Amino acid sequence: MVSGFGWRKSTRSEDPKGCVEVARDVRNTSVRDSKDRNGPVLAFSAGAWSAFLAGLDSLAGLPVDAHDPI
Q1: If we measure between CA atoms, which residue out of 27, 57, 32, 58 comes closest to residue 44?
Q2: 21 neighbors 29 (Cβ within 8 angstroms)
Q3: pLDDT band at 1 (very low <50, low <70, confident <90, very high)
């Protein structure tokens, strides 16, 4: 998934020095460091991505369904 997909800055990245980019294909959501586009990529299944976002929402005190899905 590293090339050929539409990477975009995550809506959760607010600090320009600590941005991540996300991309989605039919099975996974992938995350990479925007400063190291050729570096490692984390790939999450749909269920794992949803659980990850729910955990972030919980830490931020937001309703679990308040997140942007990508």
Answers
A1: 27
A2: no
A3: very low
Give the model confidence (pLDDT) of 25-40 as tens digits: 888 999 998 889 899 9
**DSSP, residue by residue, 10-31:** -TT---GGG-EEEEE-SSEEEE
- Euclidean distance between CA atoms 61 and 4, whole angstroms: 35
**CB under 8 Å to 44, separation ≥6 — which residues?**
28, 29, 30, 31, 52
> How long is the chain?
70
What sign does the CA torsion over 4, 42, 53, 15 have?
negative
Specify the residue for token string 């996300």: 22
